[in-house]
Sequence to fold (572 residues):
Amino acid sequence: MLDRAVRDVMEAYGCWDAGDRVPYAIEVSRSPEHGDFACNAALVWARRARRSPREIATRLVEAIGDAGGLVQRTEVAGPGFVNLWLARARWHGVLTRILETGAEFGRSDVGKGERVQVEFVSANPTGPLTLGHGRNAVLGDCIARLLEATGCHVTREYYFNDGGRQMRLLGESVKARYLELLGLAAPPPAGALADPDAAWPPEIDGLPVAFPRDGYQGDYIREIARSLLDARGRELVGEDPEGPFKTAAEQSVFAEIRRALDALGIRFDVYSNELMLYQQGKIDEVLKDLRALDLAYEADGATWLRAQALGLARDRVIVKSSGEPTYILPDIAYHREKFRRDFERVIDVQGADHIDTFPFVRAAVAALGHDPSRIEYVIHQFVTLSSGGASVKQSTRRATYVTVDELLEEVGPDVFRFFMIQRKPEAHLDFDLDLAKEQDWTKNPAYYLQYAHARTHGIERKARERGRAMPQPGAIDASRLDLPEELELIKRLGQFPDVVARAAESREPHHVAYYLQEIAGLWNPYVQDGVRHRVLSDDEALTDARLGLALGVRVVLANGLRLLGVHAPERM
Fold:
């Protein structure tokens, strides 16, 4: 319709060439007073036509007319926008389409089957999942769900480092607690671990303090040590910390991580680790290839990435003087392997503390012959926990932090997931524990959505109690839904596929959360007003239409909540 109108007007001005495209945007109007949609075609074509935008907009309005009954009204607005109101019959048809499509409504093929890898969580097995890991997990899972809903073939991957200094410290920490339980080592004096000037290691009552200064201090370390002592007794006293101690710790911690992810409804298709890259020679191969490209050089006993030659501000160490690679080198190898596995796009969901790393990885991967534009980084900011109006102090260094497991016990997975996805990734997130624990559906935003969905089932139950079957989509006379609030609700329901596509393209699931809140904000008051909006009445046609509206709301809320990994209950 609009393409034809633009072409006709531009041909009349003598500035249309065969094969021309029609670049313009159609956006949903922010206010009903400005129509259902706004089009900027007149502004886009004004220079080429050498006419004022308002003159072109006026001609476009004339050319559009009623578009064969599709358009109820048009107007010229502002500097030259064309505002359009669709005919009510078109909107009523939207409700029928929603009901006929059902669980598939909102899905599309805009992803065109693209093979996408989403790597997220990727927490090293050194301790329980923290709030930051929790946000990463929910964000990555929702992005994967959105991409699948738009036709992409998605592989969810968890990559972790099971070697290196952190894992050595983990093994040393467990062994230290093990020796402490046997009375062969003393705990460090209070505050000693936090004092960088303290002599180390000290002795207490003639016993050496075996606990490493930068070791892991949580209670879970003692529990792992206790389990080893119960199972093996004193036979591990002379063992290397990187032997049974590290192995037991890694297995125990990773089992806890997987239990937390299972509770959140998060699954992975692939688990990979850094050690595999070493064992398969991938890291040595990358280093060799970088040297062949003169992008790796030796200085000060270390090996450096010649990053300035790749357009970055400074070079970076990729192998320390000790011979141990920094985390950048395995990351380069890992991302090259992603492309070798034929992914057309790779998306890394990472915390803000990784923002300094990815330019070096992307530049090195590009130098090795891969398209850097196919690597995307979704960087999310940190999460703070508040209660009673004050922040809850947390420290991973001292293991004084609230874990995902603990929060799930307090608020449940649905509330946890929704709270983690309410804001855009790059925004700081304050997890309000008091609000999350609130049971009142009018206050807790997660329950507000779930209650809106449950209400549609409550209406159906009442209808069946009165002997009324739910109407079939084709039998609904949606023209009976003629109240402004009913039409507004249908319009917003019809926008769901566009919201899903936009959220998937931008990798921002919060758009779906905002949208669902808007739907619930229209539906809950509608149901509350049982006089003006009585669903069940003696008017059978109106009753069927309003039951159809309830089913339409149910479809969109259920499909949207599914994309966020939140349950859509039938009762609350």
User: Anything to note?
Assistant: The longest strand covers residues 153-160.
